[in-house]
UniProtKB/TrEMBL annotation:
Residues 140-367 form the Sigma-54 factor interaction domain. It comes from Lysobacter firmicutimachus. The keyword Coiled coil does not apply. Gene3D superfamilies: 1.10.8.60, 3.40.50.2300, Homeodomain-like, P-loop containing nucleotide triphosphate hydrolases. It comes from the Bacteria. Pfam families: AAA_lid_14, HTH_8, Response_reg, Sigma54_activat. This is Sigma-54 dependent transcriptional regulator. The modification 4-aspartylphosphate is found at residue 60. InterPro entries: AAA+_ATPase, AAA_lid_NorR, CheY-like_superfamily, Homeodomain-like_sf, HTH_Fis, P-loop_NTPase, Sig_transdc_resp-reg_receiver, Sigma_54_int. The lineage of its organism: Bacteria, Pseudomonadati, Pseudomonadota, Gammaproteobacteria, Lysobacterales. Residues 11-124 form the Response regulatory domain. SUPFAM superfamilies: CheY-like, Homeodomain-like, P-loop containing nucleoside triphosphate hydrolases. Keywords: ATP-binding, DNA-binding, Nucleotide-binding, Phosphoprotein, Transcription, Transcription regulation.
């Protein structure tokens, strides 16, 4: 899942093999509202230099594995912000080369605080507009071509009345995109999110469409469903393929007529609702498997959006990771930073869980770090077992398939603290299957 983020702060990349100078410069810049990145070699700096996000590059010329000018030769300089050469060994040759490059200052160590402060102020004032910096429109962050195309598409389609079907892997931020569509649309009503897989199938109709008093046992009063709650706003139907086929028929009628009839009622209530639906499955395959009606698909997909996985978004993972870290520092009043080499690890990982996995990895590294430097270990999926029996399923000869399935289901639910959606994802089944299995267990006398 993608995460809502604040507008990014100006950024400074400090490339210097003097760790004390780099750390002091980073602290100075951070205190003035910058997000600092540090690299202590030419190799480390190249990972950051690919990002067109650096508003100020503070570059030492003498590095362990080469000359700072080698980094500038690899960069598309017009795409970057201000560049400052900072050296303790000035020479006429290096100064002449520096001033021949665009947007370059040539400074001599040690830097005085006033000089560095002016440099930061100038870089912040020249920071590129949001379209050229890390995109944060609608709460989304990223500057990869895929994200730029997505955000441009959202701004074009949002003001329309068209329904939208969002597809994409788990963790890519489908709800965030739906919220952005609502924000860009200018609709005056509420944004109402509904996870169709998290509500028991027999209760979903009442939740969506409302019910009249006495329509079923326990219906002590009239209830306005999510459609009515989203009047003049946007209703987001996540995991649309988990909706029972019978309800899909009724949903199609609601979309066609613009009216909703509460369960147990006869009056058609006019509604003005923009519907955005989402699925982490391939829509065409869902149609073939029968979990999504073809006629509903075409009604929902006036416009179809497929969200790119994080692994195809280039260096966006770095931007998002630093944003997560910055927010954690603000929340806990700390000044933690990524250890050297962490950015390279972040870029190399495939991120099968996308932004949701990245957020968990950064938060886990932040909370478990003993000092101010944190090291992210992607790919961590299993919690350390508290008790052997709680995390292992035991099979024995003579057990029936039903007993094996029951053992697997109950242990998986316990592992995920009763979260049926995560349990279903782990087992590779639908949430509806989880509900049905639990219902059968209750009918057979099990306390679940």
């Amino acid at each position: 899942m993608a995460e809502r983020v604040s507008a990014p702060s100006p950024t400074v990349l400090i490339v210097d093999d003097d760790h004390d100078f780099a750390s002091a410069a980073a602290d100075f810049a951070r205190a003035r509202g910058f997000t600092p990145y540090m690299a202590h070699s030419l190799e480390q700096s190249r990972g950051f230099a690919r990002l067109p996000a650096v508003d100020l590059l503070l570059l030492d010329l003498e590095l362990p594995d080469g000359n700072g000018f080698d980094l500038l030769d690899d960069m598309d300089l017009p795409e970057h912000g201000q560049i400052a050469i900072v050296t303790g060994q000035p020479s006429v040759e290096s100064a002449a080369r520096a001033v021949s490059l665009p947007v370059v200052d040539y400074l001599i160590k040690p830097l005085c605080p006033e000089q560095f402060s002016n440099l930061l102020d100038h870089a912040a004032a020249r920071a590129r507009p949001p379209q050229a910096r890390a995109e944060a429109r609608g709460g989304m962050i990223g500057r990869s071509p895929a994200m730029r195309r997505l955000i441009d598409s959202l701004e074009r389609i949002a003001p329309s009345e068209a329904t939208v079907l969002i597809s994409g892997e788990s963790g890519t931020g489908k709800e965030l995109v739906a919220r952005a569509i609502h924000e860009f649309s200018g609709r005056s009503g509420a944004f109402v999110p509904v996870n169709c897989g998290a509500i028991a199938p027999d209760l979903l109709a009442s939740h969506l469409f409302g019910h009249e008093r006495g329509s079923f046992t326990g219906a002590a009063a009239r209830h306005n469903g999510y459609f009515e709650q989203a009047d003049r706003g946007t209703l987001f139907l996540d995991e649309i393929t988990e909706m029972p086929p019978a309800l899909q028929v009724y949903l199609l009628r609601v979309l066609e007529t613009g009216t909703v009839t509460r369960v147990g009622g006869s009056e058609a209530v006019d509604i003005d609702v923009r519907v955005v639906a989402a699925t982490n499955r391939d829509p065409q395959r869902s149609i073939e498997e029968g979990s999504l009606r073809e006629d509903l698909f075409y009604r929902l997909a006036d416009i179809g959006l497929e969200l790119p996985p994080l692994r195809s978004r280039g260096d966006d993972a770095l931007l998002i990771a630093h944003n997560f870290l910055e927010r954690l520092n603000i929340r806990y009043g700390t000044r933690k930073r990524f250890a050297a080499g962490t950015e390279r690890v972040l870029l190399r990982h495939n991120w099968p869980g996308n932004v949701r996995e990245l957020r968990s990895a950064v938060q886990r590294a932040f909370l478990t770090a003993e000092g101010d430097e944190i090291r992210v270990a992607p790919g961590f999926r299993k919690l350390a077992p508290v008790h052997h029996d709680a995390t292992h399923v035991s099979f024995s000869v003579g057990m029936t398939y039903a007993q094996i399935e029951q053992e697997m289901l109950l242990k998986t639910l316990a592992h995920f603290d009763g979260d049926r959606t995560r349990s279903a994802q782990s087992l590779g089944v639908s949430v509806r299957t989880i509900h049905n299995q639990l219902a059968r267990l209750r009918e057979s006398g099990h306390d679940v």
